[in-house]
Amino acid sequence: MVNEWNNKEICFPAHPVFTRQLTDTVLYRIPKSDYKVVVFVDSVGCVSCKLQLSRWKEFMHEVDSLSDGAVPFVFFFQSKDLRELRYILKCDGFSHPVCIDTDDEFNRLNHFPGEMMFQTFLVDSENRVKVIGNPIHNLSVKDLYLKELAGIKSDPLPVTTVHSDSVEYHYGTVGENQTESKKVILHNTGKEVFRIKGVTTSCDCMTVEYGWDEIQPGESAVLTVKYKAEEPGDFWRTITIYGNIPDQSITLDFWGIVRK
Question: Residue 166: CA atoms inside 13 Å, Cβ hemisphere, count?
């Protein structure tokens, strides 16, 4: 996938229409710049889980600080439910211009991968892909974006091994709109210090809290994973922990049932 898209040109519709929070159409032209971040979001699955707009705002601020605001972000959304999308944009206070591509023109021009993780791109001044991947859902990809933008090459940390007390956690039955917590214990079973890079969640209904940065060899530390119940029914969510371990991350599963 990476080899296929590396240096491939992203083509934009001739006359895209951008809006703020699906209420006001804005005069927004896709800028010419040394770099830009291009985000395509299709209409498959949970839109809120895919977007996680609060984290996009944090990343945009980080990139703005790194580049003095010289890297624009271009968002193209498909949506079967404009009311839901408008609610999400307003709820998260996301006022950046977005294009609602109801005719799927952007996707037809480029034939984007079906996997959400490969529908976001860092492109150069000629709109050619330099990095593919979603920096919100994958912190290793986020590092690639920031290193490309800053021109930084860094030496990786020594690798250690980390194991959790389980790979699957069951919340049981959760009342609608209630919040339940689970403790995850991480054990450093290797010979090097484990340094946590961060944690991503599959949905913004999940939050992870921890007050430490590293785990010494032979020691353990705790993360608290909170789930805020949404619609009634079965649920399955994941968190991914990043650090100096093989494959750079581990993913844990959380599931249960929401009852009214």
Answer: 10
